[in-house]
Every structure is written in structure tokens, then in C-alpha cells.
């Protein structure tokens, strides 16, 4: 996952794209309060998406936390979920 350049990815991934990918991956909305929405997977993973509008984007550090640390998605997962092109970034 270290090969992924999050600075290039941040302008491409909006809150609504990440949420759609989470739902396709089996995450369900557990709690939504204000701008913080928590999605939980049956295997125990939990991702918090903080946004006000569906077209909001995230800074590099937060995006990396959601993808790599919380959702534990690999480069192959991102390609399968069509969050990055098959050829990579």
C-alpha cells in the first residue's frame, strides 16, 4: 500500500464515492451524528467518514486513515471497488 500516492487520490475521492464503496464492501451505517458517520463491517472494522456534503473531499492524512488504517483496504481492493484505475495512479 505504500506505493499509493494519497495526494493524487484526494481530489478524486469524494465522501459519496467512499460511502458507496463502503456499502458495496459490506459496511453498514451504524451511527450518524451531524457530520460524523460511522460504518461497521461484520468482521469488526469500523470507518468514520466526516463530511457535510457528498462532494466533500478529504485531506491526505484523513484519507489514508480511512482507507489504510480503518477499512484496511489494499491497492487491489481499491482497484476492485473502482476507486482507482486498474493501472494505478
Question: Helix amount, in percent?
Answer: 25-40%
* CATH fold call of the domain at 28-84: Metal Transport, Frataxin, Chain A
Identify the overall geometry. globular
Biggest sheet details: 3 strands, antiparallel
What amount of the residues lies in strands? 15-25%
Structural class: alpha+beta
**What is the chain-wise order of helices and strands?**
HHEEEHH
CATH architecture assignment name of the domain at 28-84? 2-Layer Sandwich
Number of strands: 3
Helix count from the secondary structure assignment: 4
Please, what is the CATH homologous superfamily of the domain at 28-84? Hypothetical protein
Name of the CATH class of the domain at 28-84: Alpha Beta
- What is the mean predicted local confidence, pLDDT? 90
Give an overview in words.
With 89 residues, the chain is an alpha+beta fold. It has a domain at 28-84: Metal Transport, Frataxin, Chain A, CATH 3.30.920.30. The chain is built from four helices and three strands. The protein has a three-stranded antiparallel beta sheet with strand order 1-2-3, with helices on one face. The two termini are 12 Å apart. The mean pLDDT is 90.
Q: In terms of topology, how is this protein built?
A:
Blueprint (H helix, E strand, L loop, with lengths): L5 H4 L5 H10 L3 E6 L2 E5 L5 E5 L9 H11 L4 H6 L9
Antiparallel strand pairs: 1-2, 2-3
Main attributes of the structure:
89 residues; alpha+beta; Metal Transport, Frataxin, Chain A; 3-stranded antiparallel beta sheet; 35% helix
How do you describe this structure in short?
The chain has 89 residues and is of the alpha+beta class. It has four helices and three strands, in the order ααβββαα. The chain is 35% helix and 18% strand.
Amino acid at each position: 500500500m505504500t506505493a499509493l500516492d494519497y495526494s493524487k487520490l484526494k481530489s478524486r475521492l469524494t465522501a459519496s464515492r467512499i460511502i458507496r464503496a463502503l456499502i458495496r464492501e459490506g459496511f453498514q451505517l451504524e451511527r450518524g451524528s451531524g457530520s460524523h458517520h460511522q460504518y461497521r463491517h461484520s468482521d469488526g472494522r469500523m470507518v468514520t467518514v466526516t463530511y457535510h456534503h457528498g462532494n466533500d473531499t478529504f485531506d491526505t492524512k484523513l484519507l489514508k486513515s480511512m482507507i489504510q488504517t480503518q477499512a484496511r483496504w489494499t491497492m487491489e481492493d481499491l482497484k476492485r471497488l473502482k476507486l482507482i484505475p486498474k493501472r494505478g495512479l
